[in-house]
Amino acid sequence: MNPTATTDRASLSPAARHWRRIVRSRAVWIGLSIVSLFVLMALLAEVISPYGPDFRAKEPLEPPSWNHWMGTDEHQKDVLTRVIYGSRLSLLAGGLSVILAVFIGVPLGAFAGYYGGVVDQWLMRSIDIALAFPGIL
Q1: What pLDDT does residue 65 have?
Q2: Which residues are paired to 72 by β-bridges?
Q3: What is the tens place of the pLDDT at every residue in 101-124?
Q4: Cβ-based neighbours of 132, under 8 Å, separated by 6 or more
Q5: What DSSP designation does 135 have?
Q6: Is the pLDDT of residue 10 over 80?
Q7: Whether 75 contacts 60, CB under 8 Å
Q8: Chain centroid to CA 98: how far?
Q9: 135 touches 127 (CB < 8 A)
C-alpha cells in the first residue's frame, strides 16, 4: 500500500471525499446513463421515432412486429412513437415542477429561516395543511 495515498486522502476535505466517492460509484454512472438516454430520446424524437406523431397504421391493436415494435393502440397509432413523443411532455412537466418548487420553496424557506418564530410556525402550518390533501385534488 502506498503511504502517500493515505495522507492524500486524509488531507481532502469531507466534501472532496464525498465527491470522489460519487464519481467512482458504478451505480451513479449507470443511473446517469439511463437518465441521459431518456433525455436524448425526448430531445431527438423526430430523428429516432420510426413514424411521425400523426401516423396511423392499417389495423388497430396490432401486436408487436418488425414494423411496430410495441404494436399499435385502438386508435391505429404506433405505441413506440407515442411513448417517444410522450416522453417530451413528461420531461417538460418534471422540469417545470422542479423549477417551480425551487423558485417558490427557496424564498419561502429563506423567509421562514430569517424571521423564525411566528412567521416560521405560520408557514409550516400552512404547508402542513396543503400536504394533508391528496395530490389528486
Answers
A1: 94
A2: 78
A3: 999 999 999 999 999 999 999 999
A4: none
A5: T
A6: no
A7: yes
A8: 9
A9: no
> What is the C-alpha to C-alpha distance for residues 68 and 79, in angstroms, rounded to an integer?
8
Please count the residues of the chain. Answer: 137
Residues 98 and 88: their CA atoms lie apart, in Å, by 16
> Which residues, in sequence order, are bridge partners of residue 78?
72
Alpha carbon distance 69, 90 (integer Å): 21
CB 71 within 8 A of CB 79: yes
Written as nine digits, the cell of 128 is 402542513
Supply the DSSP string of 53-113, one letter for each residue: TT---SSTTPPP-SSSTT-B-TTS-BHHHHHHHHHHHHHHHHHHHHHHHHHHHHHHHHHHH
